[in-house]
Amino acid sequence: MNTKVIVCMEEDDKAVLAEAGRIIRQGGLVAFPTETVYGLGGDALNPLSSQKIYQAKGRPSDNPLIVHICRFEDIYRLVSKAPAHRKMLAAAKRLAEAFWPGPLTMILPKSEEVPFETTGGLSTVAVRFPAHKTAQALIAAAGGYVAAPSANTSGRPSPALAKYVLEDMEGSIDMVIDGGEVGIGLESTIVDLTVEPAEILRPGYISRDMLQEILGRVEKDEAGETGGQAPRAPGMKYRHYAPHGDMTVVSGEKENVMAYINEQLSLQKKAGKKSGVIATDESAARYRADIVKSVGSRADELSAAKHLYTVLREMDEEGAEVIYSEAFTGKGIGEAVMNRLLKAAGYHMVQV
Ligand code: TXA
Ligand code: MG
Fold first, then answer.
1. 154 touches ligand 1 (CB under 6 Å)
2. Which domains are present in the chain?
């Protein structure tokens, strides 16, 4: 298959988006930018489209997809209207008023219209209303319901740039809409509203504190955080975002972290291994590795979120065999950065 690439920085490029929407309505796949990462879109209400998405990603089909909408009211077609579920929908409405459109995904009991192929066999559905204008216009052109996982092949970092979508997907999807670099760089926060209290299944830009302000107490799924055996978001159990190199996260006081990493780097050099360090603007000059990449300034953890996946991919491009990364604070967006770093490292962390 020939993958068509189109550049679209503005949502009002109607002709382009009409073509992309048509492809999705006819059962094809289109990758598109969102404010978090690039998504791989197909018709969420067409079971064949969902199967195609799993195929293109090489993703296990028990790993459910997020359904993207472009107006709050479209949620009603996706979720159960049973009286027992009314409270959950009311909570969704309150969260939507505060955070939609935006980087928040809500889990709710599904309606009969959502095929089990889209939800990985679950009786719940994940719904998100993204803030990105091109994404919104595409969803509208595609009929209003677009299933979209991150547009990477399974096990690779989510793409923050269209070139990484192509690297993983060229030849296996119909179209890529190149809208430049994404804004946040890490996937949306996922909150499960089918349990009481609500539970965060994947940390992201919308933090626990922000959710608690609207809902009261909100829990965290610890298995999704620590690599435990049975995380409640099926996708969190797979080794994800993993570079090819052997990766270790180093946590502790900053001088100790730098000293420890430099010590390890000399050992790796003796062993003839190509080394990489994931550093910050403040520390990058201090490392003696073959490849040193800064994810941005410590004073701005949003920049770390934005660049992390790209830096992980660059480590692969440049052939890093061992990778050391500084740790992040674990507060706000830093928590999401740390969650993805630990996954990339297969939960291998050293405290110094
Ligand atoms: O920011 C994002 O959410 C991006 C962009 C494209 O919107 N999408 C994304 O999708 O990250 P994906 O498929 O890479 O991750 C979806 C996660 C998986 O871990 C999946 O297991 C979980 O959401 N999930 C989906 N439906 C679920 C459900 N019904 N119950 C529990 N977890 C669910
Ligand atoms: Mg993903």
1. no
2. 4-220 (3.90.870.10), 246-351 (3.40.50.11030)
